[in-house]
Amino acid sequence: MKKIMIAPSVLSADFSRLADEVREVEKAGCDLIHIDVMDGHFVPNLTIGPLVVSAVRKVTKLPLDVHLMIDAPSRYIAEFRKAGADWITIHVEAEKDVRGVLKMIHDSGAKAGLSLRPKTSVESLSPYLSDLDLILVMSVEPGFGGQSFMPDMMRKIESLRPKFKGLISVDGGIDPATAPKAVAAGVDILVAGSAIFGKSDRAQAIAQLRDASKHSS
Ligand code: DX5
Ligand code: ZN
């Protein structure tokens, strides 16, 4: 059985004590730290910039999985990489020259990911599959934590799985009840915000997600 990676999304963390929050989930054995960058334009919410990414970089050795929900992300690749991003994911809807930005990410030394909104078809990723390290399938409308999981999105994962050799991540509404559905569809990475940072015992929350991911069928 393959190991499923857990990526806590700091969007649901207590930002007044972000360093402690990140150390706590690292100690609890998570695999990546997921950081949601929003520009108030591609999505309605405004969140994190390179300054906060570099602050997180100082307190953990875990890979930083930076999810850019911003228009024209080519403008900021170098800055996020400099701030310490190891994985940089852009949205296929957010950029005209998708291949050019993926190359820019790779040239910066980071791993490149591509994400898609729930309404965007999986075929929109087809031209780029060989350029990608990661596909991030959104299982909620991007913009906010704490929304309900969209089970129909699992079909996208099922159709990508045989065609794509890289990692597939699922983001939105993941908790111990929904995680098994995503694992059964073929994901490698579970991103979870409220199901981890919304619980007082983060170690237990991560353990419950791990446990749930072993019961996928
Ligand atoms: C939503 C973000 C998610 C968010 C997930 O646009 O991309 O990473 O933090 O939050 P939960 O796990 O609470 O749905
Ligand atoms: Zn995200």
Produce a short descriptive summary.
α2 (50-57) packs parallel to α3.
Topology (elements, then pairings):
Blueprint: E1 5-8, H1 18-27, E2 33-38, H2 50-57, E3 64-69, H3 77-83, E4 87-91, H4 98-108, E5 111-116, E6 134-138, H5 154-160, E7 167-171, H6 179-185, E8 189-192, H7 194-197, H8 202-213
Parallel strand pairs: 1-8, 2-3, 3-4, 4-5, 5-6, 6-7, 7-8
Helix pairs in contact: 2-3
The chain binds D-xylitol-5-phosphate and zinc ion (ZN).
Give the SSE string: EHEHEHEHEEHEHEHH
Give the names of the bound compounds. D-xylitol-5-phosphate, zinc ion
What structural category characterises the helix and strand content?
alpha/beta
Helix run count:
8
Unreliable runs: none
Structure description:
This protein has 217 residues and is α/β, with parallel strands linked by helices. The model has no long low-confidence stretch (mean pLDDT 97). The two termini are 12 Å apart. The longest helix has 12 residues, at 202-213. The protein has an eight-stranded parallel beta sheet with strand order 1-8-7-6-5-4-3-2. Helices cover 30% and strands 19% of the residues. It has helices spanning 18-27, 50-57, 77-83, 98-108, 154-160, 179-185, 194-197, 202-213, and strands at 5-8, 33-38, 64-69, 87-91, 111-116, 134-138, 167-171, 189-192. Helix 2 packs parallel to helix 3. It binds D-xylitol-5-phosphate (DX5) and zinc ion.
